[in-house]
């Protein structure tokens, strides 16, 4: 899709993001909106509107990264549970038409889905970068590949 898609720009390195993990087919970065600290998005680097149009190789890379990020989020930002979700289409709540999975720490009774996405706080870039650094370190400790691909 190119320059009009914010996630394509992030994947290309032309838009700012607090990157947690960057690999050839997928990347993870801290969401701007943090209902709870540790909310991360995982995307394919190739522009894919939603899960229905993703090829198997990209799908495998994205889901492996979702699994790795979910472990890092659980360890570094422990909650009582976790939500991992992907919305399809505007009616389904998809705001950016580029496939992305949310990995989000949860707490009993937190009410997140009653208010999301309107109420989450928007931390400054330094806070988002700090969250990303913590998760990168957690990935290293778990043996994951978390360094950006050049």
UniProtKB/TrEMBL annotation:
Gene Ontology BP annotations: nucleotide metabolic process
Domain of life the protein comes from: Bacteria
Keyword Hydrolase in annotation: yes
Active site: 100
Domain HIT stretches: 6-113
Any Pfam family matching the protein: HIT
GO MF term list: hydrolase activity
UniProt KW Hydrolase keyword: yes
Keywords on record: Hydrolase
Motif (Histidine triad motif) on chain: 98-102
PANTHER family: ADENOSINE 5'-MONOPHOSPHORAMIDASE HNT1, HIT FAMILY PROTEIN 1
Protein name according to UniProt: HIT family hydrolase
């Amino acid at each position: 899709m190119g320059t009009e898609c914010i996630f394509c720009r992030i994947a290309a390195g032309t838009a700012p993001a607090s990157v947690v993990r960057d690999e050839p087919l997928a990347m993870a970065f801290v969401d701007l909106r943090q209902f709870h600290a540790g909310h991360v998005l995982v995307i394919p680097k190739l522009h894919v509107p939603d899960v229905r149009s993703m090829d198997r190789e990209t799908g495998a890379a994205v889901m492996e990264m979702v699994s790795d990020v979910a472990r890092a989020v659980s360890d570094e930002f422990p909650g009582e549970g976790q939500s991992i979700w992907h919305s399809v289409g505007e009616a389904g709540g998809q705001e950016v038409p580029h496939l992305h999975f949310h990995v989000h720490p949860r707490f009993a009774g937190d009410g997140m889905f009653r208010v999301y996405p309107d109420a989450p706080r928007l931390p400054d870039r330094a806070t988002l970068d700090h969250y990303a650094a913590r998760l990168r370190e957690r990935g290293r400790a778990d043996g994951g590949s978390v360094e950006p691909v050049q």
